[in-house]
Hints:
This protein is of the alpha/beta class. It has five helices and nine strands. The protein has a seven-stranded parallel β-sheet. A two-stranded antiparallel ribbon has the order 4-5. The two termini are 16 Å apart.
Amino acid sequence: VNAGFDYQIGGAYTPPSGVKVVSRDREAKPAAGLYSICYVNAFQTQPHRLRWWQVHHPALLLRSRTGQLVLDQTWGEVISDISTAVKRRALAKIVGQWFAGCARSGFSGIEPDNLDSWTRSRGRLQRADAVAFARLLTARAHRLRLLIGQKNAAGLASLGPSLGFEFAVTEGCEVYRECDRYTDAYESRVIEIEYDDVPHADRVF
């Protein structure tokens, strides 16, 4: 609680003095001697990995009614198809292997990104799909003795602990005036990230 946090998504570097908690991409090594959280894009594809998904698991990519891939336009990421129990189990197996890699590398926690991807799915996914997939992911993390945090989706914060999340990682909760939703659910176990390129940002961490 109250530990200095450094968000190193996109490239690892030596943490500044005073930092005790670091989040890094799953391909990176954890920060030595610090509490390290492993970033995993659990609900969408990383752009540079899309070809791999198209070759090996095309049926697990969300498509529109006309067969077009459904894209998160902001990040250029295709959304994973968590619309059925069969597909959720298949995706959980793949993502679970990434979790296992995080555990082997020495990470202590997991940050599964894009829990809120159903809101960008053009109606192809429902909130219940995200909830069901989240339960599979938290179970996978716990079997590996990893803690796992809710990433965004303030509307699900009240459910988060019951889904198996132990903490939360938020982006822009000051800007969107939703920090209280996370602290009501997780008390002090909330990591807040604010960006200086967002209009009307009150604070930058």
